[in-house]
Every structure is written in structure tokens, then in C-alpha cells.
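Whiteboard transcription, Tuesday session. T.W. wrote the C-alpha cells on the left side:
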């Protein structure tokens, strides 16, 4: 079968923004569109905005839609990649069992594939970023929540109905803080940016001595992970302690990943990862002292390489991989 020089379109549908990008088969972005998600207006309006974003992306390089080899949609919530249905989304109100893959496919008459956004980023990093060339790779993003994806034997771990890889919901403390998923003590209730800010607010309410409020214009509700990072950089002891605690919990989760999956590389991205050494030194200490020695010696921790584009590149990469999978058949 003759192979064209592929152009694939990736869509990174988020709760606040829609990113569309045309990429080539080397993962390079040829055109990119960024727009706001009208999340509050419901599924129809959001899908309309996605379609508009795709058109504006293609218009930038005057590429006719028929030239695309495939479209990949990364969506923020549990979905079944086989049926193309997004079950629900914590970031998109009103979405329930939406057949988003088929809607997009019917709009453009191009093969379309659906993937969870965090899994998309994992595929993107695996094909074109920090995990390139590895067979056993894990991507972890630490931001408001914790997400990621697991690549085993070169393939994304999807599970029975496509919802595998919810790394942020592994239980770290069975009596821990309640999680929006209904469980308690999930990794993201202890080691995400939201958790860091929540712990800071709790400690201020308990009367701890800290300059944290000065970094948030005196308003406790304004405290974010970034506020804690700034206060720590300015020498605030409570802020330093809280980042160390977040690093500790980060390390406990990473230890589980090392022991369960024996990965070659774990790439860590997301806004909270930008805190750097102050967070990672305690995290890696935990991994070093608690993980199986042999598995620990086999893994490398690296920063994610694709930044904010990991989702959109990954959605396209996922579509490319799917097309290649199904087009590799030969009667020769
Ligand atoms: Zn949870």
C-alpha cells in the first residue's frame, strides 16, 4: 500500500480551551488554533466550537479537509476509544455518553479516533517526546489534578473498556481527604496543585505562622500552588514544609508505579512539576528508599518534553498509530 506523507489533525478538548493542530508524521506542528471552550453552554455548543477550530486550523495553511489522513480527539474524561463515546467529564457540564468521535467523523468525513486527554499526552510523549524509543513508559502530569498514561510493550494500556491509566486515583491513604471521584485519599487529593493549596489554607486556618497570605493579597481563597511556590522561594518555612510534603506523597505514588509497571522512563509534566528540585528531591528520596531496588535502578525520571502541546500532538499521534495499525494488513 502506498503511503502518503501524512498530515493528521489533533484536537485537545479541555474544560477551558480547545486546541487544534495539524501535525506531520514526525510530530511537527504545521498549523495550530487555540480557542475558548464554551463549556457552560453544553455539548452542542462545545462540539460546534471544536468544528470551527478545526476549520480555522486548516484555513491557516489552506489545507483541504480531504487531505487529512485522520483526526484524533483528546477529551477530558473517561471514554471508550472503541465505541468513541465520552462517558462523562468533570470539566464539561452536561456531557453524558456523548458519541463525540462519530459526530466529528460525520462532520468531516475523515477517520476519527477518541482518546482520554491524559492518555493522549502519554502517547504524544512516547512517540515524539520524553519517551521516544522506549517500550515501557509512563507519563504523569501534576497540575490541578494528577493524570497520565501507561505504555506497555510499546502500546497504550487501555483496559477492558478504555478507562485504564487513571493514575491520579490510585489510593495512597485509605482514610485520606475525599476525592471528587467518590473515593478517599486518591493520589491527587494529596500530591496535586489543588491539594497543595488546600493544605496551605488548612494550616493558615489552624493558625500556623506564615507569610502565605501576603502572597495572595490577604485573601485565603486566592491561595494556589503557585502562591505556595512563591512563598517558599521567598523563604517561608510553612510553604517549604508543604512542598516537601507534596513531594513526599508524589514519591509514594511514583514508588507504586515503579513497583507495578517496572518502566524504563517516567516523564513528569504539568504546572506543579515546574516547582522543580524542592518538590522532586523529597519525591525521589521516597522512591529510592521504598521502591524495589532493581526496578528503581532500571527507571529514569525525566521532565516531559512537549509542554502544553503534548495533548494535541498526542491526540494526532494516537490517530496516526490507529491508522497504521489497521492499514498494516497485507495480502501479499
Ligand atoms: Zn479519586
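and on the right, the sequence the group agreed on:
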Amino acid at each position: 500500500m502506498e503511503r502518503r506523507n501524512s498530515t493528521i489533525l489533533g484536537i485537545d478538548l479541555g474544560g477551558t480551551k480547545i486546541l487544534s493542530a495539524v501535525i506531520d508524521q514526525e510530530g511537527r506542528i504545521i498549523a495550530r488554533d487555540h480557542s475558548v471552550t464554551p463549556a457552560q453552554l453544553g455539548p452542542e455548543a462545545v462540539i460546534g466550537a471544536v468544528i470551527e477550530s478545526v476549520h480555522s486550523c486548516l484555513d491557516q495553511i489552506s489545507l483541504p479537509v480531504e487531505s487529512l489522513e485522520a483526526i484524533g480527539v483528546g477529551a477530558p474524561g473517561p471514554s471508550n476509544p472503541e465505541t468513541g463515546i465520552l462517558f462523562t467529564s468533570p470539566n464539561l457540564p452536561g456531557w453524558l455518553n456523548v458519541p463525540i468521535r462519530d459526530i466529528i467523523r460525520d462532520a468531516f468525513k475523515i477517520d476519527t479516533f477518541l482518546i482520554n486527554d491524559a492518555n493522549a499526552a502519554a502517547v504524544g510523549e512516547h512517540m515524539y517526546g520524553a519517551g521516544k524509543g522506549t517500550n515501557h513508559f509512563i507519563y504523569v502530569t501534576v497540575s490541578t489534578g494528577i493524570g497520565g498514561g501507561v505504555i506497555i510493550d510499546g502500546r497504550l494500556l487501555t483496559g477492558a473498556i478504555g478507562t485504564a491509566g487513571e493514575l491520579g486515583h490510585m489510593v495512597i491513604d485509605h482514610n485520606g481527604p475525599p476525592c471528587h471521584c467518590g473515593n478517599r485519599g486518591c493520589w491527587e487529593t494529596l500530591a496535586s496543585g489543588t491539594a497543595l493549596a488546600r493544605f496551605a489554607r488548612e494550616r493558615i486556618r489552624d493558625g500556623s505562622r506564615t507569610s502565605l497570605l501576603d502572597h495572595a493579597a490577604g485573601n485565603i481563597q486566592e491561595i494556589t500552588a503557585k502562591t505556595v511556590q512563591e512563598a517558599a522561594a521567598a523563604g517561608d518555612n510553612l510553604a517549604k514544609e508543604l512542598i516537601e510534603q507534596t513531594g513526599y506523597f508524589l514519591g509514594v505514588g511514583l514508588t507504586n508505579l515503579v513497583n507495578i509497571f517496572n518502566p524504563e522512563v517516567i516523564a513528569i509534566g504539568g504546572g506543579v512539576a515546574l516547582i522543580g528540585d524542592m518538590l522532586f528531591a523529597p519525591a525521589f528520596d521516597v522512591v529510592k528508599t521504598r521502591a524495589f531496588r532493581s526496578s528503581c535502578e532500571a527507571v529514569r525520571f525525566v521532565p516531559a518534553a512537549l509542554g502544553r502541546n503534548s495533548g494535541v500532538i498526542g491526540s494526532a499521534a494516537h490517530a496516526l498509530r490507529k491508522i497504521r495499525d489497521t492499514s498494516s494488513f497485507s495480502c501479499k
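Someone added at the bottom: The pocket of zinc ion is lined by residues 169, 179, 181, 183, 186 (CB under 6 Å).
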